[in-house]
Amino acid sequence: MRAKALTFKRAKRLRREMNLPEVVLWDCLRSGKLNGLRFRRQHPIGAYILDFYCPSAKLAVEIDGEGHAHPAQTDHDRARDNWLASQGVRMLRFPATAVLDEEALLQVLGEIAAAAAPSTASRSPSPASRRRNKYGAALPLARPEKLGDLSSSPVYGGGGPRSGGGGA
């Protein structure tokens, strides 16, 4: 399942050139923000590069833009999904428009969290289930609705470096 050197180079370039829906979702997934799950972005597997990949759950998440509606692309996606399934990787696909809509984004995050939960993942527990405080008690898991106000995100106009908003 190891990718070729050229695929690794392409993945590195894609990490630098992520589109807006990918940036929004990555902001929600990075650093274990979703139930402590660790995701990789633009992760190469075989000849393919996955938008997001959670190794502990063997779960891939793809953000599909308008180009995925074309018949040739649909056939390619189907073949890709079948090959990944043969490698034990489960695939979730979401339209880019769902990631850009705040309410739909919460549903997307909920579906990702449910798919990566230990009961639905390959027999290994999620990293979050192993998190404990210094007394050995399990730490609470984050819920998608508790991720914080998206309006504070630079993407949604919270004033960060990517907000594009200037002074008056």
Reconstruct the topology from this structure.
Elements: H1 5-16, H2 20-29, E1 40-45, E2 48-54, E3 59-64, H3 71-86, E4 90-95, H4 96-100, H5 102-116
Parallel strand pairs: 3-4
Antiparallel strand pairs: 1-2, 2-3
Throw out a few tags for this protein.
alpha+beta, 4-stranded mixed beta sheet, 15% strand, 35% helix, 5 helices, 168 residues, single chain
Q: Can you give a write-up of this model?
A:
The protein has 168 residues and is an alpha+beta fold. It has 5 helices and 4 strands. It has helices spanning 5-16, 20-29, 71-86, 96-100, 102-116; strands spanning 40-45, 48-54, 59-64, 90-95. The chain has a 4-stranded mixed beta sheet, sandwiched between helices. Strand 2 and strand 3 form a beta hairpin. Mean pLDDT is 77; it is low at 123-130, 137-146 and 151-168.
- Overall mean pLDDT stands at 77
Adjacency order of strands in the biggest sheet: 1-2-3-4
End-to-end separation: 52 Å
Computed over alpha carbons, the radius of gyration is 17 Å
Oligomer: single chain
Q: What is the ordering of alpha helices and beta strands?
A: HHEEEHEHH
Number of strands: 4
Number of helices: 5
Helix content: 25-40%
Largest sheet at a glance? 4 strands, mixed
Cα shape: globular
Class inferred from helices and paired strands: alpha+beta
Strand proportion, as a percent range, falls in 5-15%
The unreliable regions are 123-130, 137-146, 151-168
